[in-house]
Amino acid sequence: MANVLILSLVFRPDNVSTAQIMGDLALDLNARGHTVFVITTVPHYNEDAEALLHQPLHTYLGKLLQRSNYRGMEVLHGWMPRKGKNKLLRIVAWLGFHAISTLGGVLTQFKPDVILAPSPPLTIGVCAWLLGLRHNCPFIYNVQEIYPDVAVNLGMIRNSFVIKRLQTLEHFVYAKAAALAVISEGMANHIRAKGIPEEKIRVIPNFVDIEDFRPLPKDNKFSRQYGLHNKFVVSYAGNMGKPQELDKLIEAAHLLRHEFGIHFLMMGDGSERVSLIEQAQHLQLPNITFLPYQPYSSMAEAYAAADASFVSQAPGTSNDGIPSKVYRIMACARPVIACTDANSDLARLVIKADGGVVVDSGDAKSLSDAIWKAFVQRDVWLEKGLKARNSILRDYSRPTVSTLYHELITELQQRDTLASSCERSCELRH
What we know:
- With 430 residues, the chain is α/β, with parallel strands linked by helices.
- The strands form 2 sheets. The protein has a 9-stranded mixed sheet, sandwiched between helices. Strands 12-11-10-13-14-15 form a 6-stranded parallel sheet, with helices on both faces.
- Strand 11, helix 10 and strand 12 (288-291) form a beta-alpha-beta unit.
- It has helices at residues 17-31, 49-54, 87-107, 124-135, 149-153, 160-176, 185-192, 221-225, 247-255, 273-282, 299-304, 325-331, 345-353, 364-376, 378-395, 398-429, and strands at residues 3-7, 35-41, 58-61, 65-70, 73-78, 114-118, 139-143, 179-182, 201-203, 232-239, 262-269, 288-291, 308-312, 336-339, 356-359.
- 49% of the residues are buried.
- Helix 3 packs parallel to helix 4 (124-135), helix 9 (247-255) packs across helix 14 and helix 12 packs across helix 15 (378-395).
């Protein structure tokens, strides 16, 4: 079994998808006999008070580095300010995380055999490479989103010089990684088109804990608390930024404002949350409820309170990633309204499972039509939810996907051990 270092921008007790996926994966690897050590940040996306109570942070190097224990595994947390709108501060904070995490990896007595580094950011691959040099071990670059393509396609980066430098960095990370764990076949094809050797690429999807996220009654504590148990609810949960195009959901709510049985629930936070609330207030929409991020322990009930859940991707970004929340929604036997390009991985997932409907990105009218159809065909949509759950049980459960990571880590460890043995043999002969 291997010593595995997980180097991740987010990890539990932060309450975002990647943090929870990496936390569950760490537990599963540990259960298989691997020794896992984690370097990450302090919670800065969404602090979960309940999770923090079970995993408190303690001083290690002042506020620069703190430490916690996640179910028997040691975790180092580098300083990071709360996520906000200030892009310059976020860039400075990211650079700081890279320096702090690399320092933590150098100072620790933990000797990894394999390093696992999920994106974003792209530059975390450089930190993994440096720590791999320090400890003489390979690293896996886990491609959750393809950078810089995501930022370029969203128009966040326009300077051709910067784009070229980032593309150079991307190829450097791909070249230095021992393996690329890519979360969807479409993303893998996108990376293959960049000239990356096939033997480096492994398609390992994200997963969901089918016990934590399971079918529950719509009439539950959460739905009663917010008066949702007797309404047809369309929900969104997660980051509220430009890539999510949530203004289209507001527009759909406006188009359906006279259908008093339909209600919209938007949970989360992000750079666009205030403007979305202002948009809803300007349109005088009584059919929308905004809530902050909910604790992880409440999310199964929150999904159960919805009759359909909205998942979106901005136009042109469909090959750059797939929202991991879709697996949770489907695991809770709730159908998905996917606002995405027709040939995206997200669209293929929903269509293959018959677990919802796909509408074009940026089309509020088509979105409102899909919601109305779901409202009047509720029995059909209940059936779609069950099909979605069956798809998750078949292909995306936590044990199934964790096994793929275990096999890849074991393979790289054995390959590295064999290479080291060959080097020693050569040295002895000479």
